[in-house]
Amino acid sequence: MKLFKLCLVVAIVFAMAGVAFAGQTLDSVKAKGFVQVGVNGDLFGFGKPDEKGVWKGLDVDTARAIAAAVFGDANKVKYVPLTAVQRFTALQAGEVDVLCRNATQTLGRDTELGLDFVQPIYYDGQGFLVPKKLKINSAKKLGGATICVLPGTTTELNVADYFRTNKMKMKPVVIEQNAELNKAFFAGRCDCMTSDASQLAGVRAVAPKPDNYIILPDIISKEPLAPAVRHGDNQWKDIVNYSVLAMIEAEELGITSKNVDEMLKSTNPLIMRFLGVTPGNGKALGLDEKWAYNIIKQVGNYAEIFERNVGKDTPLKLKRGLNALWKDGGIMYSPPFK
């Protein structure tokens, strides 16, 4: 009997600890008054300050969406630039609340690093950037090449596997800082740069002469780029996850930053629940019922953030492709908001 009571007490203590831990990140964020977000800092189109020092990019807008959900103010964000080597350690150590830094979700990272990834913000794949003067049209013609690559990335392992599989040799040039790696490539220290195709588009967009470089058609991997949080805080994971999903759902529902106020008058039950006219979703997340409204009003739906940061009218000129909605031939898909 005593053993049973002891076990019961232990179970209750652990249960209470779990409840307390579940909200600790949200409590910390609210106490600070801002969301501390790990970003790239040097990747055009995803996370980089412009010439006026204003942070812009797809990952930046993701961070702003989280802040809008939590505070009703998309500007309550502090950006922490991190290298590929630093990023996961900084999140593990609590130096940032969430990582929005073109990071690929993998089994190893999910299970070994004490992290959880949420809905991908961009489905990508690894490619190769080469100077046109090399007259190369396929990665299988890169045998013997020197390859610029970032350490601590899936890219580093993928390119080694690719060359080994195709029985080719290569010489890696490994540099930790994005800016320094780009300089090395443009200075001719390596024949080729390999990374996520979207990142290569961003690198090419800010090249001294962008038209002198091409991204080869070969895609050698799957790279679901997703925000990450620390494992164990389920409430915070839900908030970050549904902040991303809200932008996807809004696009599907036809809600934009320009028409969201008019949409508050809709009698469509899906739209009423989504915008908090019919309450419930906010309470479930521990947020204000207008959390999704605030994201769309201040940041936009997924189509809006895609097109202004990396879309066809930007220097990156990326097509939606896999990142189109499921009904448009892509794989962007949100679960029901109910």
Mean pLDDT: 93
N-to-C SSE string, H for helix and E for strand = HHEEEHEHEHEEEEHEHEHEEEHHHHHH
Give me the count of strands: 14
How many domains is the backbone divided into? Answer: 2
* CATH second-level architecture of the largest domain: 3-Layer(aba) Sandwich
> Any idea of the CATH topology of the largest domain?
D-Maltodextrin-Binding Protein, domain 2
Structural class: alpha/beta
Please explain how this structure is put together.
Helix 3 crosses helix 9 and helix 3 runs antiparallel to helix 13 (291-298). 41% of the residues lie in helices and 15% in strands. It contains 14 helices and 14 strands. It starts with a helix and ends in a 29-residue tail after the last helix. It has a five-stranded mixed beta sheet with strand order 10-9-11-8-12, with helices on both faces. A three-stranded parallel beta sheet has the order 4-1-5. By secondary structure, it is of the alpha/beta class. The chain folds into two domains: 24-123 and 225-325, D-Maltodextrin-Binding Protein, domain 2; 126-221, Periplasmic binding protein-like II (D-Maltodextrin-Binding Protein, domain 2), CATH 3.40.190. Strand 2 and strand 3 (55-56) form a beta hairpin.
